[in-house]
């Protein structure tokens, strides 16, 4: 038995035949110190519903429940995990709801209509960035979550927190830093997972910003960063041509040098450009 009265994870994995499937991005966390550390990092959880994507055999789920989450709502695509998760639900009456499905297709705003939500997940790496972009582009904003505490490949974590004039700075950095305050909390060695992935991971926390103005719309900001970083070696006077025929008046109005390149602009510069484009098109 573990501290929560449930059998050890290795026993659960063996009993339910949960051999990890690479195609589902399955790298399980069996180290209770680490799952506890992630749950504490997301805290305080009292009064919050935790949304967990991909609970798998339920190691992190158990840590979240033990850390005092009001409840955990989880979505898992692999039907083999459902019986194991049902055991955890039975040991925690009314505190764990598991949906069988694809996290990319979930309508979270409807799911969490009147709840305070924190997202905590050891994400499947194959859909991690797509899920993050889905959550960061939620409309309206503030979104349905107050924070995201997520395991990513270290390289993705570095892109999320990257500052201008660095090689990792790009569309994901601007989007994440426009709507949240992101921070890498700690690195996680491949050895912490079963089976171990090829790369080092990290836990990133993104605190939702409440003060994001209504303009520009997030779709416009995304179009500007796509154009600018799509040709990141070009000067903006050239790269923004994919967006508007003559970028020079736009750059002048924004107070940005026409010879600047995407990686030199701050998040505020991108927001100003996007807002001006919306005003010009009105
Ligand atoms: N949370 C568990 C842990 O930490 O040991 C498992 C994490 S494992 C990296 C990712 C989990 O996400 C797997 O259980 C996998 O089946 C699940 N998964 C993969 N694609 C998914 C999707 N589209 N929607 C929901 N869950 C998914």
Short key terms for the protein model shown above:
282 residues, 37% helix, Helicase, Ruva Protein, domain 3, two-stranded antiparallel ribbon, Rossmann fold, 2 domains, seven-stranded mixed β-sheet, elongated, 9 strands, alpha/beta, binds S-adenosylmethionine, 12 helices
Commentary on this structure:
By secondary structure, the protein is α/β, with parallel strands linked by helices. The chain has helices at 9-15, 32-42, 59-66, 82-91, 108-111, 128-136, 154-161, 171-179, 218-230, 236-239, 248-254, 267-281; strands spanning 28-29, 49-53, 71-76, 96-100, 117-122, 147-153, 180-188, 193-194, 201-208. The protein has a seven-stranded mixed β-sheet with strand order 4-3-2-5-6-9-7, sandwiched between helices. It has a two-stranded antiparallel sheet with strand order 1-8. The protein starts with 8 loop residues before the first helix and ends with a helix. The mean pLDDT is 96. Bound molecules: S-adenosylmethionine. S-adenosylmethionine (SAM) binds at residues 24-29, 53-56, 59-60, 75-78, 81, 102-104, 122, 124, 127.
